[in-house]
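**User:** I keep going back and forth on a fold encoding question. It is easy to fool oneself when nobody else works the same problem. Could you pick a protein and write out its sequence and tokenised fold? Could you put it straight underneath, so I can go through it closely?

**Assistant:**
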Amino acid sequence: MATVANAQRGANQSAFGEGQIIRGVQTFRDPTTGKTMELSNQYDHAWLNGNNEYVLSDDPNFNPNGKLDGSWNQLQVVRPTP
């Protein structure tokens, strides 16, 4: 039973990952709330403000605080677990 359950879990993760690739998204987590959301997979850095607005960047050194109005929290990329 454990082998079948493990195989099914792997198949489900694979299908989920394929679906995200097809849709061009990846999962991000807000560390302050634990809430997850799907945003573009073209960027590995995302920020969220209190108005539910997002900023995406491919620059790991970018920080919208001090450059844009509001208070921005950096989101975490959620990588699938093997």
